[in-house]
Amino acid sequence: MSAFPTAADLPAEVRVLIAGGGPSGLFLALDLASRGVPSTVIEPRTALDHTRPRAKTTNARTMTHLRRLGLAEVLRDAAPLPVEYAQDVIFCTGLTGPSAHELRRFRNAFQLVPGRYGPQPECGQQVPQPVLEEVLRAAVDSHPLVTFLAGCTVTGVSAPEGGAATAPCAVVVGDPEGAERTIAAEYVIGADGGSSAVRRSLGLRLEGGSAELSNISILFRSKSLASAVSVDPAVQYWVVGSETSGMVGPMDRDGTWWAIVQGVDPSVTVTAGDAAAMVRSLVGSDVDIEVVATDPWTARMLLAPEYSRGNVFLVGDAAHLNPPWGGHGFNTCIGDAANLAWKLAATINGWAGPGLLASYGAERRPVAARTIRDAATNGKALAYHFADPDLVAAGRAGDAARGAAHRALAVKQSEFDSLGLVLGYAYGGSPVVLPDGSALPDEDPIRYIPSAAPGALLPHAWLADSRSLYSALGAGFTLLADAGSLGGVDPAEVFEPVLAAGARQGIPVTVAAVGPSDDGTHLADLWGAAAVLVRPDQHVAWRGNSPVEAAAALSAAAGWATAFPPARPEEPAPSIETRSARVDVIIP
């Protein structure tokens, strides 16, 4: 990893240039590298700021993406708070003393579930964003296919008409001394945040609005707070106070805490003394407070009208900004990078059709729009909206107020129990997904209905041999066949047309027989078909029972043909009856 390079040190040309070395840019570089594609990351920051922890929620989906890169356990080992520490979010009137009343509790918030998790191979993890970035930076530093240049800044991009087929993009990069150099890049990724220079170079503006009131994040240390807390351990405490309302949580187990005071007048300057007083008001006790840093901010609900122009693509905050309520912002950024990485790698490695890269924005922009809507809805029910002086009162008045608050706070469930949002997004309308006429489950931020309908995330299962189903997936496409439907026949023999299609077009594809699950369920019953074609990002591209259709689906899912070839009944392949009650055909 090079630090403080000058303009003269920069390369003259690169294949993939990533502007921004935050979570989405680093993850993208590592995902590309796992597929054999080198990249160069340009990042202005030479050091990480641990006084602004920002995101603290790494959800189950992002942890599963990190698992693909071998980094899930690395991140868990680096996290200051293990999953076993606490899994709940507690709404209360304070943290200390007799006036600290619990109002409502949301259990296993943010997919924090100790032990083996069901819906994904990995559960969630609470960890400050700078710790995550340290893990990603270390992985980048040790990977020969990633060049990380810290201290430089991308200031502009000029993209040719027609993409790299005509000429490379011209990327202007400035060094710490103010000198500039223009780098030629075949592909440019703008992962450079909400004020993205890459996005501005494309003439695109984020569209949307902002919250009326601001918030202030406070990082502080306290020697006595942990022992003074009288409510149960939690990853977040939401304090509903008549004077100060907001959130408090432990950053580690050594006395470092974070707080977010909600509903702050943005025109008021908050001093360190003011911040300490706010924290004491939140916790309900005159404990020692050492303010480390304050960070005022306003929730934004913004979305780019397009995610790409030519060979320039936007990921993460460069493409969308959403409120932090629910912890989805950073996780949505990683989802962008995971979607783009395999498609860009496929294009560079020569097996992608012309429609594959174009599907990136078509798939990811609706996910961001849905996430922004849900987070904005949660932003209309913050702690101060439930404030009532009677919440700390004794007797009937207090009991009545606390009972009313408990019922009213049910509206917050989707903020903490959001599996439908985290796992339930689907690419059903994508041009590189093969519809089968079935409907995807209705969108619901809370309820996740596992489905193998094309476009949906592959439903997870733990297999009878204790492996995760996802462990059977290859780096490219994977044709998963229910072992119970094959009756002992070699899946490579049954699905030879898929392997042949992959070999013919250079598309990497693995064929594997799997199942049953550890509870004895045949996977055909879970999928609604004897086989599913799974994309490199673990979403289903096709499901069915025909090897011939599966072969055609492989080509279409790689961005090539979009129609199945005509059936040739005069040349039937060996048939194997499926065990699924929902499949009434045989594999032809």
Walkthrough of the structure:
This protein is of the alpha/beta class and 588 residues long. 27% of the residues lie in helices and 22% in strands. Strands 1, 2, 3, 8, 9, 10, 11, 19 and 20 form a 9-stranded mixed β-sheet that branches. The protein has a 7-stranded mixed β-sheet with strand order 6-5-14-15-16-13-17. β19 and β20 form a beta hairpin. The longest helix has 20 residues, at 329-348. The protein is globular, with a radius of gyration of 25 Å. The termini are far apart.
The value of Rg in angstroms is 25 Å
- The overall strand count is 27
Globally, the shape reads globular
Terminal Cα span: 54 Å
Mean pLDDT: 92
Instruction: Please describe the biggest sheet, giving its number of strands, its sense, and whether it closes into a barrel.
Output: 9 strands, mixed
Strand content: 15-25%
Low-pLDDT segments: 563-588
Classify the secondary structure makeup into a structural class. Answer: alpha/beta
| Share of residues in helices | 25-40%
How many H/I helical runs?
17
Short description:
The chain has 588 residues and is of the alpha/beta class.
Essential attributes:
seven-stranded mixed sheet, alpha/beta, 588 residues, nine-stranded mixed sheet, 22% strand, disordered C terminus, single chain
Topology overview:
Elements: E1 2-3, E2 13-19, H1 23-34, E3 39-43, E4 57-58, H2 60-68, H3 72-78, E5 89-92, E6 102-106, E7 125-126, H4 129-141, E8 146-150, E9 153-158, E10 169-174, E11 180-190, H5 197-201, E12 207-210, E13 214-221, H6 225-228, E14 236-239, E15 246-250, E16 256-264, H7 272-283, E17 290-297, E18 300-303, E19 308-309, E20 312-314, E21 320-321, H8 329-348, H9 359-378, H10 395-408, H11 413-416, H12 419-423, E22 477-482, H13 483-486, H14 491-494, H15 496-505, E23 509-514, H16 523-527, E24 531-534, E25 540-544, H17 547-557, E26 576-577, E27 586-587
Parallel strand pairs: 1-8, 2-3, 2-11, 3-8, 5-14, 11-20, 22-23
Antiparallel strand pairs: 4-7, 5-6, 9-10, 10-11, 12-18, 13-16, 13-17, 14-15, 15-16, 18-21, 19-20, 22-24, 24-25, 26-27
